[in-house]
Amino acid sequence: MVVGICKIRFAIRQSRSLKGKRQVLRRLKDRMKSRFNISVAEVDNHDYHQTADLGLAVAAADATHANSQIQSAVNFVSMEVEVLDVSTELVHL
């Protein structure tokens, strides 16, 4: 079994408040969960209204599938918002 984990830092330039940021994050997380069947959570930068960090996790039978799911999700996010940083790791169990 392989667990793929990823942290994505991105900018939400149009957000003017934490409420606006939460709306963008909720929509983005819901779409990612349904489209890619991955776990998604806000993991950092909770108090900044124009920056967010999302953590992604996926469990798969092999590294190729886990990496593919993570990369597809990262590509999706990059089409929606301005991605500032991405870190990915595959853990073999």
Overall pLDDT confidence? 89
- How many β-strand runs? 4
Give the CATH superfamily: TT1725-like
Largest sheet: 4 strands, antiparallel
Task: Kindly describe this structure.
- It is a single chain.
- This protein has helices spanning 18-36, 63-80, and strands at residues 2-11, 39-44, 51-60, 82-92.
- The chain is of the alpha+beta class.
- It has one domain: TT1725-like (Alpha-Beta Plaits), CATH 3.30.70.
- The protein has a 4-stranded antiparallel beta sheet with strand order 2-3-1-4, with helices on one face.
- β2 and β3 form a beta hairpin.
- 22% of the residues are buried.
- The model has no long low-confidence stretch (mean pLDDT 89).
Q: How do the helices and strands line up, and which of them pair or pack?
A:
Elements: E1 2-11, H1 18-36, E2 39-44, E3 51-60, H2 63-80, E4 82-92
Antiparallel strand pairs: 1-3, 1-4, 2-3
Keywords, separated by commas or semicolons:
four-stranded antiparallel β-sheet, elongated, Alpha-Beta Plaits, 2 helices, alpha+beta, 40% helix
